[in-house]
Write a structure and sequence with these properties.
Length: about 260
């Protein structure tokens, strides 16, 4: 295990907004100046880092644990394969990869507060071998072309300013035959469940964020960011646009979340 490497700062032109004016992008339901989104997102996760794992259980009623197990299984951990875990936060995907017999892993996140929590959790679990921590902007990954076998991002892509650029960077660093996987909240496919899910997201979740984490606004943003995220088919099209092939997705819990997969051929 290594100490946390400091952030890599891309050039201002590295990212671009998604389907917005050139100088603005979404931050939840708000339009904000493009240059401000990363700092706003960083502030959110600085605020929630210490309670992030508890709030994940609250946000998904604990189902995220089962989703992540499915996700790690899809990654196919193997000693001969390496993993870059983008927006890896407090470490669940990297930990699952290593426990499943995967090879070297890089746990990366743009937010050092989240990585610090992840590193402490790794130490508590005795996961001290084969795991590096690096503060990385997923839109400008400081790795060489064709350098890793798997790239994962779980519940992180929706917080990125330029999602297409993240997908392009993931493809760039994958070795030929490598696989990209994204786990993210998505578009509910069961019409009867949608009103209940909306009520939970926009009324219950912010209140629980205030009660448990002392931060209503951050959890209001997280609920809004889910609604602003591309639906399953749109994200699949974006992955193809980024150059990934054999793109597929599977819905989890009726589309509350989805796993998208693409390969570098």
């Amino acid at each position: 295990m290594t100490d946390i490497s400091q952030p890599y700062h891309p050039s201002p032109s590295a990212g671009r907004p998604d389907d917005r004016h050139a100088d603005t992008t979404d931050f939840g339901f708000r339009d904000v100046p493009l240059r401000e989104k990363k700092s706003l997102v960083r502030d959110v996760f600085d605020s929630v880092a210490s309670k992030y794992d508890i709030m994940n259980d609250v946000m998904s009623l604990g189902i995220h644990r089962a989703w992540k197990k499915i996700f790690v299984n899809e990654l196919g951990p193997h000693p001969d394969l390496s993993l870059l875990d983008l927006a890896g936060g407090t470490g669940d995907i990297s930990f699952g990869w290593l426990r499943g017999g995967g090879g070297p892993a890089i746990l990366s996140d743009i937010n050092v507060s989240m990585l610090t929590v992840g590193r402490n959790r790794a130490l508590e679990r005795g996961l001290v071998s084969g795991l590096n921590f690096v503060a990385v902007d997923a839109e400008a990954i400081p790795l060489a072309d064709n350098s890793v076998d798997r790239v994962s991002i779980a519940f992180g892509l929706r917080n990125c300013t330029d999602k297409l650029q993240v997908l392009r960077e993931a493809r760039r660093i994958l070795r030929p035959g490598g696989r990209f996987l994204c786990l993210e909240f998505s578009r509910v496919q069961v019409a009867a469940f949608a009103p209940v899910y909306d009520a939970w997201s926009f009324h219950v979740l912010p209140r629980m964020g205030a009660a448990i984490a002392g931060d209503r606004e951050s959890y209001q943003y997280l609920a809004e960011s889910i609604r602003m995220f591309p639906d399953q088919e749109t994200l699949a099209d974006m992955m193809r646009e980024a150059g990934l092939e054999r793109v597929t997705y599977q819905n989890l819990s009726g589309g509350i979340a989805a796993i998208h997969s693409g390969w570098k051929i």
